[in-house]
Amino acid sequence: MTIEELIRQAAEANASDIHLICGLTPKYRVAGRLLSMREEVLTRTDCEELARVLAGAEFEQLCEIGELDAAATIQGVRFRINLFRQQNSYSAALRLLSDRIPELRNLGLPPMVEQLTDLQRGIVLVTGETGSGKSTTLAAMIDEINHRQARHIITLEDPIEYIYKPDHSIFNQREIGRDTKSYAAGLRAALREDPDIILIGEMRDLFTVETALTAAETGHLVLTTLHTGSAADSIDRIVGVFPEERQQQIRMQLSMTLRAVLAQQLLPNKEGTSRVCACELMIVNNAIRNLIREGKTPQIANAVATSAREGAITMDNAILKLYREGKIRADTAKLAAHDIDYVERNLNVLK
């Protein structure tokens, strides 16, 4: 079997990921479920040959380090590659990327999200587990800006996922490891490149967080991601990166620069044929700003719940909305809930 055949089959099935592991049949993820692509089991030789093709000129680096991130286009399909060595053989995880950026209004996000694209400065966070659609949401937001505003947009990505076609805006897309050494180095340079908007693929370390805060304070709009499940968790994660003696200062900076947090989950739809987005949206108002400053993050969830008039919504209410609209099953709602008692009570009311 060739990588071209596997990519073509995955694309036809609308799969999101392919997994190639020695001793198993090739797998792909369709609507969140792992399925076998064919009956043949991959041998160690198969996996090494596929790794050589996918790594290309960087195969020696894979052999030396044991893992490799890259991106490629095969059969007209762009995909993100992670190759790694395990139990003396090679494995591959491939994320298929869309060649079309979806329209923001078609992602099922809270209506207020579209207004976030009008922000001139500050930080907007998109959070969620791996594969929850964070990159797609950010790309749709960036492209919405591109079609309406004249801005200079710099992206720092690992690797580059969506390729933007300049409309009203101009772009510089930089890939970590190829165009710049690290997020920290790329972000430091970006501040000298006259950007209006900086997209950071992920805030991974103290320096990146610190520089993102500085960029927001000096009049830039920063869009970035974290691997957290809620708005409150995001605050704690950012503050927790810093030593204790600096955390109060960071809370103060964050309270003044953070504009919104979107926390996403992708849930199987009622028929199990695709996935729908459940999205918590926290709009940073004066009440939430005070809670961040005072370190009272456990109270943020209640503050989000009482900010519905401003367009905010909690994750549990977003899940209940999907159930009320007939898009997900009750058992899916319960599994995805943050407060399962609250969701169960409301599911019973909606029956």
Would you mind describing this structure in some detail?
By secondary structure, this protein is of the alpha/beta class. The protein contains 14 helices and 13 strands. The protein has a 7-stranded mixed beta sheet with strand order 9-8-10-11-7-12-13, sandwiched between helices. The relative contact order is 0.10. The mean pLDDT is 94.
What is the structure about, briefly put?
37% of the residues lie in helices and 25% in strands. By secondary structure, it is α/β, with parallel strands linked by helices.
* Shape summary: globular
Mean pLDDT level: 94
Strand % is 15-25%
Please indicate the count of domains: 2
Which segments are poorly predicted (pLDDT under 50) over 5 or more consecutive residues? Answer: none
What profile does the largest beta sheet have? 7 strands, mixed
Q: What name goes with the CATH superfamily of the largest domain?
A: P-loop containing nucleotide triphosphate hydrolases
Q: Percent helix among the residues? A: 25-40%
Kindly provide the name of the CATH class of the largest domain. Alpha Beta
Q: How far apart, in Å, are the first and last alpha carbons? A: 49 Å
CATH arch. level architecture of the largest domain: 3-Layer(aba) Sandwich
Backbone structural class = alpha/beta
Strand order of the largest sheet: 9-8-10-11-7-12-13
